[in-house]
Amino acid sequence: MPRAAFVAIGTYVPDRVVTNAELTKYMDTTEEWIVQRTGIQERRWVEPGLGSAEMAHRATRRALDQAGWNPEDIEAIIFASLSPDHMFPGDGCFLNAKLGIPGVPALDVRNQCSGFLYGLSVADAWIRTGTYKKILLVGSETHSTGLDVSTAGRDVSVIFGDGAAAALLEATDDPGRGVLAIELHADGRFATDLWTDQPGSIHSPRNTHAMIDDGSGYPKMEGQKVFKHAIVRMPEVVRNLLGKTGLTTADIKVFVPHQANLRIAETVQRSLGLRDDQVFNNIQKYGNTTAASIPLALAEAIPERGVQRGDLVALAAFGAGFTWGAALARW
Ligand code: UT7
Q1: Quick check: pTM over 0.90?
Q2: Do 120 and 64 fall into the same domain?
Q3: Which parts of the chain are beta strand (E)?
């Protein structure tokens, strides 16, 4: 049976670098607090007018150049984002138009930090069933336009950044390449522990002045609760997958955890007993880019860690929903 293999990953982050020092101008925080609690040193924010679909488009063009593909080679688009340009339609359609490939199906995935892994699972299933052979999977986020950068929102707003990454996937019959296994989970009992309540269709009317005044349009997070679940669930799901595939942590060339907080990634690393050279983090430069974080880190990990064809790559995510999951793939 064929399975999905990575062909290329293109990335795009906005030019504007927002340092921790800049954030101290907007809210009561310190550079030390942000670095010690999160590991983040800077993040990127869009300039007005740039959004998730266009960042995804720029990342996709770079991936296409790397792969030597034309837009017309793409048979399906999967777009993961919690911050699409508009309420509807999803950014997959806007990306389809920007790429000039009318008729190509576009699926939008709303699984936040786990969005790339949920999308990868769908792409792999489509490829295994022979539905499509060449798929574009994108994660793209524009957090900065929706953050409360006052002191009231400081726990959330210091961690999130903007950016995009686009993976091109193709069917392979090579047993030494491609996705080996993916495991996904969700636990909706914690859905309101990391969420943006408004605007939402449960509210009538959906948009109100009060929403702007009371801050309910901003993301809210029970940070410690998310943290405690993340450091248990991510290692657990990676161990499950290794067990199912008969592999061990020693087989992993590079592990790319979702870049939510450097302390989370380091705790997960310790729990799995991985060496430093087996784990790749770049949250220091980009903050938490949610659905874009795994491919944004994977794109840098491949050259920086010298990942070769056939090497085992492990990915894991945890975030809003709660949703979490992991994937094992041979490069
Ligand atoms: O990708 C989606 C998934 N998200 C995550 O995985 C995030 C998980 N959670 C976290 O990363 C951490 O919980 C945070 C970075 C959000 C917060 O770090 P923490 O070590 O859990 O801090 P805390 O929430 O326990 O807050 C400690 C103190 C509080 O002050 P008091 O009550 O002790 O006086 C906060 O008000 O730190 C304060 N605080 C800040 N101080 C300076 C919260 N945010 C800030 C800030 N600057 N930005």
Answers
A1: yes
A2: yes
A3: 3-12, 17-19, 42-44, 76-80, 106-109, 134-141, 163-172, 178-186, 194-195, 220-221, 252-257, 312-319, 323-330
Q: Which domain holds residue 193?
A: 178-330
Buried b (16+ CB within 10 A) or exposed e, 238-261: beebbeeeebebeebbbbbbbbbb
- pLDDT tens, residue by residue, 8-41: 999 999 999 999 999 999 999 999 999 999 999 9
- The string of pLDDT tens digits covering residues 245-275 is 999 999 999 999 999 999 999 999 999 999 9
State the CATH number of the domain containing residue 266: 3.40.47.10
Tokens of 165: 């990454």
Substitution site in 18, 155, 228, 268 for ligand 1 pocket (most atoms within 8 Å of beta carbon)? 155
- 265 and 131 both lie in a single domain: no
Measured CA to CA, the distance from residue 117 to residue 140 in angstroms comes to 13
Structure tokens at 204: 């009538």
Position 211 scores a pLDDT of 86
Same-domain pairing of 152 and 217: no
Residue carrying the six token digits 């380091």: 266
Residue 258: active-site member: yes
Q: Active-site residue among 96, 113, 229, 281?
A: 113
pLDDT tens digits for range 157-176: 999 999 999 999 999 999 99
pLDDT of 172-203, one tens digit each? 999 999 999 999 999 999 999 999 999 999 99
Dihedral sign for Cα 87, 91, 93, 97, please: positive
